[in-house]
Every structure is written in structure tokens, then in C-alpha cells.
Design the sequence.
């Protein structure tokens, strides 16, 4: 996103997930501690309040995190998927961070985009992303899906670098994997 401000990048991401054609004209969007229409601005306001309160500026700062949660085709309604995504975010964040859940029903597999603010609601701390946090989110998502009698991937396949395969590659579809998964990034 060279040449764009943090605000422009965040707005573009949230505008994509709130796309009315993918969310039944916004009916499949739910939020906690923010309004879907202004979530990007609210996330940035919290960030600025955090800087003002603590005096801390973070290099290469993360403003928001995203979790994508997909469901097997035909297994869940869009409304149920949104409810499950909201529950995942609620359990993950314990009411400490604002979040937005947008459920897309424009593909055979219904899926959620969950965005949450990296700054706590009281503007005193940032979300701590830790090694293995992706695995912890997957386990929590699996637990919630099992509680709702939905299927989960029992043996996820890993890349050679220990990361999980892209959903399309996991399914073995004819679709091309996303561009970023095709890029080989050498580690120092």
C-alpha cells in the first residue's frame, strides 16, 4: 500500500469487507463497541488516544487485525455464520477490543471477515499477538464450530515453513492460490 496513509489503507480494507453485494446490503455485518459505518475512524481515534495517554509510539504499528473464518458449503446459513463469528471475536477479545464481523455469502463457502482494533477500548494497551496465536484462534474457532454441530478440518496441512495452506489449496480446487502465497520470501 505504498503511497497510502494508514487511514486510507484501513478504510479500503473495511470498505471491502462491508461490500453490500457480499453482505446482503449490510444485514450480515455486526459489531461490538464501534459502528460499522465508522469503524475505521474509531479504530484510529483509539490509537491516537493510546499515544496521547501512554506517550508510546510503536514502530511498524498494527492498527487492526483480521481473522477469516470459513464454513463448509451448505452447512450454515449466513446469519448463523455471522453469529458464530461474533461469538469467536467475543471470546477471543473478552470485551476489551472493538470488532467488526462481516459475513460474505457471495461464494459457495460462506465466510467471515473479523476485524478487531489493536488498541484496547480504554486506550491503555495494545493487543498482544504472540507466537502460536493463529493456532490458538483456530482452536477456539474449532471449539465454537463443534459446539454448534459444524465440521472442522481435523488434520490441517502445513506449508514447508510450518504455515497452514490457503483454503483453496487445502480443498484442492482448480482456483489459483492468492498471489501472496505464491511469493517465496527468504528469511534472514
Sequence:
Amino acid at each position: 500500500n505504498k503511497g497510502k496513509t494508514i487511514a486510507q489503507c484501513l478504510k479500503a480494507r473495511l470498505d471491502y469487507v462491508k461490500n453490500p453485494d457480499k453482505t446482503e446490503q449490510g444485514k450480515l455485518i455486526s459489531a461490538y463497541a464501534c459502528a460499522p459505518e465508522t469503524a475505521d475512524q474509531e479504530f484510529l481515534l483509539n490509537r491516537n488516544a493510546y499515544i496521547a495517554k501512554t506517550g508510546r509510539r510503536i514502530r511498524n504499528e498494527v492498527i487492526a487485525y483480521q481473522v477469516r473464518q470459513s464454513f463448509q458449503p451448505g452447512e450454515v446459513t449466513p446469519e448463523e455464520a455471522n453469529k458464530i463469528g461474533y461469538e469467536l471475536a467475543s471470546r477471543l477479545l473478552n470485551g476489551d477490543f472493538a470488532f467488526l464481523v462481516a459475513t460474505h455469502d457471495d461464494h459457495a463457502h460462506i465466510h467471515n471477515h473479523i476485524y478487531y482494533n489493536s488498541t484496547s477500548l480504554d486506550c491503555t494497551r495494545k493487543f498482544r499477538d504472540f507466537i502460536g496465536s493463529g493456532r490458538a484462534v483456530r482452536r477456539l474457532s474449532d471449539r465454537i464450530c463443534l459446539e454448534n454441530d459444524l465440521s472442522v478440518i481435523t488434520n490441517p496441512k502445513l506449508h514447508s515453513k510450518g504455515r497452514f495452506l490457503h483454503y483453496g489449496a487445502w480443498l484442492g480446487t482448480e482456483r489459483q492460490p492468492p498471489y501472496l502465497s505464491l511469493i517465496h520470501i527468504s528469511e534472514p
